[in-house]
Design goal:
The structure holds 2 protein chains of 2 kinds. By secondary structure, chain A is α+β, with helices and mostly antiparallel strands. Chain A has 3 domains: 109 residues, no CATH class; 288 residues, no CATH class; 63 residues, Dna Ligase, domain 1 (2-Layer Sandwich). In chain A, 28% of the residues lie in helices and 21% in strands. Chain A is built from 15 helices and 25 strands. In chain A, the strands form 8 sheets. Chain A has a 5-stranded mixed β-sheet. In chain A, a hairpin with a 2-residue loop joins strand 11 and strand 12. In chain A, helix 3 crosses helix 7, helix 4 crosses helix 13 and helix 7 packs across helix 8. The longest helix of chain A is centred in the first third of the chain and has 25 residues. Chain A is globular, with a radius of gyration of 25 Å. Chain B contains 14 helices and no strands. Chain B is mostly helical. Chain B folds into 2 domains: 150 residues, no CATH class; 154 residues, no CATH class. Chain B is 73% helix and 0% strand. The chains are: A alpha+beta, B mainly alpha. The interface between A and B is large, with 36 and 39 residues.
Chain lengths: 545, 328
């Protein structure tokens, strides 16, 4: 029997009830048990009256339906749960979501989950995985249950993100000019000048408005001690299209809850990005022509490039569409060459300009950097920003905040051991089973050792790699990432999550209240990358606290 | 509009026109498998393959034993034209290419157009000839036609009438002109090969182009090859007639406007004029209709080249930028 029901539609009654706590709820890992509304004799019958059963169903006969419950939903005092307090009661801002979930039948909720996935397939919101034979288009697994956050908490986070980006931009301005931070001894010079992402070609470059990074995606994780920045993505951060697409699907699947919850809107991201890019236009250019530079349809993030081009009203160009002439950049249109003022580039530095970076690159445009240096075109983000999101340089961001802004960091870093330092290397080698070891310069969850989950052989392999090239690695304690309820095989189970909000900086800094929230779908896994078995869910910033 | 995007849109128009044309032919052909004589079935395959410029299917005729082989051959031939990955213009490949082009310009077409095309493709992607052959293949082809009609309808009601729209339309008209001319040529060749002109061959041609009723209105019930061809070539009210396609090409070229180079633009327009002239002055006086259709088809191909050179792939002369030139 097919039912056109969504989880929220049946939550038309607001019934206050306190969850019944597991006897062991006050200490150690607990399982939260809740009264099952459907089988609760007090509530018997209301469900049938509130669900538009299919024609022909006898009234009061919800046969075959079982209600969602949190049986087996483990809480762990060492892991922050986004929905529940340690005592097993829902957090105040999550109460509506909690009740909606409790009131939904598993059939309904699974239908919602399937609907969200199907809508992604139909709309072709895919990323491409290339195998030996042919390209496989996949969708990122979407969990239909939103992660919710109180408004006040978000505002605090946003301040911290703004502070961090301000410091990172100041850092980039500095190291590509006088490099005061090095002469003042805050950061060792080899850390910067030895970093592969440092682009000597950008020395002396003046970014428009001093903004090197106009679009930033910062990865945040939460532990029981609060939020921490896991990494900054300052080159071509991706995922924002998923944030918007997941929102569209989730809010439509949970329409009543969404309406009642007063969720901060993310759909205007395109307008905000457009405004930011306009502000980045070269001096004197009031009505800039904006182009989004993509590596092309075979790039796994092509959907996002297309999506954003549409949102900001930009042409979606590839390197072969661009021509540089007399220090200006033009694109080939059906009426001839047309000048481009702002390029929102979604390709890496290496491929931007074969005359300057990789000579074998066909993705960029010869002479592009020259035009940028003349100030005739703004390239966003500026080439060379990768030095500031390097995994080693990351360790110094709190120092940058103190150095440039004379403020204390509002969001902490994760403790980082730089294996280039002998004492850090020794500590890392001694504690491999507790640490996450990351290779500097890798991303996407590759080249990484998760100590507690690795076997002895893998740890030994990394130990010898570490001894060979200590400067190539950093180590961090394994974090107990916070968890949020997810629908896994028809049951509500906690899964680890992270958060990537997007910070835009032009004349001013703007952050839409939302983020790309990734999930580690495998039980116990901490790896959220979509290339490594991760999924995603919606993230709601609520007006209320 | 970005030249590359315009080219993608143009190809969406072409590929879907090609898929629709083939689906119509295949529907008619699979319908004929139910009750038509073996000779008619062979005639149909000859016509289809001839129009594609491929060697017509050889085969003995008129013996009792052929019935079995004809049906078995038909299965293979239908697979070849519908699903075969190595047939560049199989229906599935046409859809895949149209969709791939659409994927690159999704930001320029309406969301409804993308959804319509994507859904059709996804459905087609998972089918094989066995799936459609077991029940009613003609229904499958009819569904493909409906999908394409739906795409056209959705495009017409949702797409902004910018240059992109006109490039899609130009692709459709140019493809149609070429396909119809090819098929008319193949029809004449197949009729000659099978010696006895049979009314049914001409009726099926009329039905293929939604022209049967129009023919009856104008020319009555008696089927005359010359009058059928005349209708399909020069009738200004029949959507699939050659003259309608040429009219469409003129309209779209004028709506698209000047390309970067005036000489190239006027060459493209002159080529469209040449195609009109072929239909106006050479038809119906020609004694070599087959040759005329071949000339018309070649003229369409030439127009394609000119459109490409004018709007998509025009030469840009630049001075080479200085290597490593950063000095301000």
């Amino acid at each position: 029997m097919t039912r056109l029901i969504n989880a929220a539609s049946i939550r038309s009654l607001l019934i206050d009830s306190e969850p019944t706590l597991h006897p062991a709820a006050q200490s150690g890992p607990v399982s939260v048990c809740f009264r099952n509304r459907l089988t609760d004799p007090d509530k018997g019958g209301w469900r049938a009256a509130n669900i538009p059963l299919e024609k022909g169903d006898p009234p009061g006969a919800p046969a075959g339906l079982t209600s969602m419950n949190f049986d087996g939903y483990d809480l762990d005092t060492d892991i922050y749960d986004e929905l529940f307090r340690p005592d097993g009661t829902p957090r105040p801002h999550g109460r509506d979501l909690y009740e909606t979930l409790l009131d939904a039948s598993d059939e309904d909720l699974n239908a919602v989950g399937e609907w969200v996935t199907r809508s992604f397939t139909h709309e072709g919101i895919t990323f491409t995985v290339y195998g030996d034979d042919e390209a496989d288009e996949r969708i990122i697994p979407i969990d239909c249950i939103p992660r919710v956050m109180a408004g006040s908490e978000w505002r605090g986070l946003a301040k911290g993100l703004e502070q961090r980006l301000a410091a990172l931009n100041a850092f980039l301005r500095d190291i590509y000019s006088s490099a005061r931070i090095i002469s003042d001894g805050v950061i060792p010079p080899d850390m910067i000048f030895g970093c592969p992402q440092y682009r000597i070609e950008m020395q002396g470059f003046e970014a428009p408005r001093g903004v090197w990074v106009a679009v930033c995606g910062t990865d945040l994780v939460r532990t029981v001690d609060g939020f921490r920045v896991l990494e900054d993505n300052l080159r071509v951060p991706s995922g924002v299209s998923y944030m918007i697409a997941i929102r569209k699907a989730t809010k439509s699947a949970m329409r009543l809850l969404y309406r009642r919850s007063r969720v901060g809107a993310v759909e205007n991201y395109g307008l905000v990005l457009r405004q930011t890019l306009r502000e980045m236009a070269p001096e004197g250019c009031d009505d800039p022509t904006i182009a989004l530079l993509t590596p092309g349809v075979y790039n796994s993030a092509f959907y996002e490039h297309m999506f954003l081009a549409r949102q900001i009203g930009a042409e979606l160009v590839e390197g072969r569409d661009l021509v540089v002439e007399d220090g200006h950049v033009y694109m080939r249109t059906t009426t001839g060459l047309r000048r481009v003022d702002v390029i929102y580039r979604r390709i890496d530095d290496d491929f931007l300009d074969p005359l300057v970076f990789r000579p074998d690159s066909l993705l960029g445009s010869p002479g592009l950097l020259h035009a940028a240096r003349l100030g005739n075109v703004s390239v966003v983000n500026a080439p060379g920003t990768g030095v500031a999101d390097d995994k080693s340089v990351y360790a110094f961001v709190p120092d940058m905040i103190r150095y440039y802004l004379a403020e204390e960091p509002l969001i902490a870093n994760v403790d980082t051991y730089l294996c280039r330092r002998p004492e850090d290397l020794e500590y890392t080698l001694d504690n491999l089973e507790h640490l996450v070891v990351k290779r500097v310069g890798e991303s996407g969850g590759y080249g990484m050792l998760v100590g507690p989950h690795a076997d002895a052989e893998e740890r030994n392999r990394f130990a010898s790699l570490l001894r060979q090239d200590p400067a190539g690695f950093v180590a961090q304690p394994t974090l107990a990432l916070s968890r949020a309820p997810c629908l896994i095989d028809g049951r509500l189970e906690p899964r680890h999550v992270d958060l990537r909000p997007f910070i835009l900086s032009g004349s001013e800094t703007r952050i839409v209240p939302g983020a790309f929230c990734r999930i580690a779908l495998r039980r116990g896994s901490l790896v959220v990358n979509s290339s490594q078995g991760g999924g995603a869910k919606d993230f709601w910033v609520l007006e209320k606290d | 509009m970005l030249a590359r995007s315009a080219e993608s849109l143009y190809w969406i128009g072409r590929y879907l026109e090609r898929a629709g044309h083939l689906a119509r032919l295949m529907r008619q052909q699979t319908e004929s498998l139910v009750d038509s004589p073996v000779r008619d079935i062979y005639f149909g395959w000859h016509r289809i393959y001839g129009a594609l410029g491929r060697r017509p299917h050889p085969g003995p005729l008129d013996t009792e034993a052929d019935e079995y082989y004809t049906l078995a051959d038909s299965f293979t031939l239908a697979d070849d034209l519908t699903f075969e990955p190595t047939t560049p213009d199989s229906i599935r490949n046409c859809f895949a290419r149209a969709r791939e082009n659409a994927r690159q310009v999704r930001h320029l077409i309406s969301a409804e157009m993308w959804a319509s095309l994507n859904r059709s493709y996804l459905r087609l992607r998972d089918l094989e000839i066995q799936n459609i052959w077991a029940s009613t293949p003609e229904q499958f082809y009819a569904t493909v036609e409906v999908d394409i009609d739906a795409f056209r309808g959705v495009s017409s009601s949702t797409m902004y009438r910018d240059q992109g729209w006109h490039f899609i339309r130009m692709g459709s008209f140019l493809e149609r002109a070429e396909l119809v001319a090819s098929l008319l040529g193949a029809q004449i060749a197949a009729v000659r090969l099978f010696e006895v002109p049979v009314d049914a061959y001409w009726t099926s041609l009329l039905r293929l182009f939604h022209a049967f009723e129009a023919y009856q209105k104008g020319d009555g019930l008696e089927i005359d090859a010359g009058r059928v061809l005349d209708l399909l070539v020069s009738n200004p009210q029949l959507p699939d007639s050659l003259s309608m396609s040429v009219l469409g090409l003129h309209r779209e070229l004028s709506a698209i406007g000047q390309g970067p180079d005036r000489t190239a633009t006027s060459q493209a327009r002159s080529q469209a004029d040449f195609m009109s002239d072929l239909l106006r002055s050479a038809w119906p006086r020609t004694i070599d209709a087959e040759g005329l259709f071949a000339e018309f088809r070649n003229a369409s191909r030439r127009l394609h080249d000119l459109v490409t050179e004018t709007y998509f792939d025009y030469p840009v002369v630049t001075r080479p930028p200085r290597v490593g030139g950063f000095d301000q």
